């Protein structure tokens, strides 16, 4: 398995843990606001320097006792058939593992949970289900998204849902609809859009939601969750 990037230390990506983050190449979604275009755009991904699985594992061996966890993000990690085998090797080194996913592969998500290979999941909820076509290249993933939500909410694993506040495709009513879809979840985060690097260049010319708009919607949904915050 090859990766498109490695962040050697992060205090932000795994709540409460000192972690490293690896970035998988490729994605089955095409979110215009994505801030990792070099991992998603096939032309850019082809030119992205590759890091081997062995290099990642060797790095982790050197950091045993210093790092607590590995975050696996992308791109979309679950499109890679070698993912489970890689995580097994990471767990053998006694690291916690956090998976970032778009929820499009519920069976893989379930297998990783059942086999106790992951300790924390962050699942992106892109939009209300009726708008998912905007982010999935026109492919219908709705039943799979719903299944992944169900798996997480009925599991004992630590997890969070999160939504990037897309300034061109999402409005307040959309976030209210999402909050009803995942009502009762452990944690839901509203992520502020950042325009410094995006998959669709036109997003570099637009701005995040005004603070008062974000706060307003937060107040309306926060009681649906144990934790609900803005990032």
What is the molecular shape?
globular
The total strand number stands at 9
Number of helices: 8
Question: End-to-end distance, in Å?
Answer: 31 Å
Radius of gyration: 17 Å
Largest sheet: 9 strands, mixed
Helix-strand pattern: EEHHEHEHEHEHEHEHE
Poorly predicted runs: none
Assembly state of the chains shown: single chain
Lateral arrangement of strands in the main beta sheet: 3-1-2-4-5-6-7-8-9
Nearest-integer average pLDDT: 96
Tell me roughly what share of residues is in helical segments: 25-40%
Helix/strand class: alpha/beta
How much of the sequence lies in strands comes to 15-25%
Report on this model:
This protein has 231 residues and is of the alpha/beta class. It is 31% helix and 21% strand. The protein is built from 8 helices and 9 strands. The protein has helices at residues 37-40, 42-47, 53-62, 83-92, 106-114, 142-153, 172-181, 211-221, and strands at 2-10, 19-24, 51-52, 69-73, 96-101, 120-124, 158-164, 187-191, 227-230. A 9-stranded mixed beta sheet has the order 3-1-2-4-5-6-7-8-9. Helix 5 (106-114) runs parallel beside helix 6 and helix 7 runs parallel beside helix 8 (211-221). The longest helix is centred in the middle third of the chain and has 12 residues, at 142-153. The mean pLDDT is 96.
């Amino acid at each position: 398995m090859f990766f498109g990037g490695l962040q050697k230390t992060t205090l932000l990506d795994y709540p409460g843990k000192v972690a490293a983050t690896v970035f998988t190449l490729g994605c089955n979604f095409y979110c215009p606001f994505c801030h990792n275009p070099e991992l998603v755009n096939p032309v850019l991904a082809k030119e992205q320097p590759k890091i081997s699985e062995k290099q990642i594992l060797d790095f982790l061996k050197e950091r045993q006792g210093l790092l607590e966890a590995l975050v696996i993000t992308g791109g979309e990690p679950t499109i890679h058939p070698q993912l489970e085998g890689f995580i097994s090797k990471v767990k053998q080194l006694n690291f916690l593992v956090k998976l970032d996913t778009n929820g499009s592969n519920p069976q893989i998500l379930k297998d990783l949970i059942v086999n106790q290979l992951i300790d924390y999941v962050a699942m992106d909820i892109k939009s209300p289900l009726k708008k998912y076509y905007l982010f999935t290249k026109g492919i219908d993933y709705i039943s799979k998204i719903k299944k992944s939500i169900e798996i997480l909410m009925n599991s004992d694993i630590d997890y969070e849902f999160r939504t990037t506040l897309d300034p061109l495709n999402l409005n307040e009513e959309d976030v209210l609809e999402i909050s009803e879809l995942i009502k009762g979840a452990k944690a839901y985060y509203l992520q502020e859009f950042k325009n410094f690097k995006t998959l669709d260049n036109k997003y570099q010319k637009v701005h995040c939601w005004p603070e008062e708009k974000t706060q307003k919607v937060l107040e309306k949904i926060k009681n649906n969750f144990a934790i609900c915050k803005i990032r």
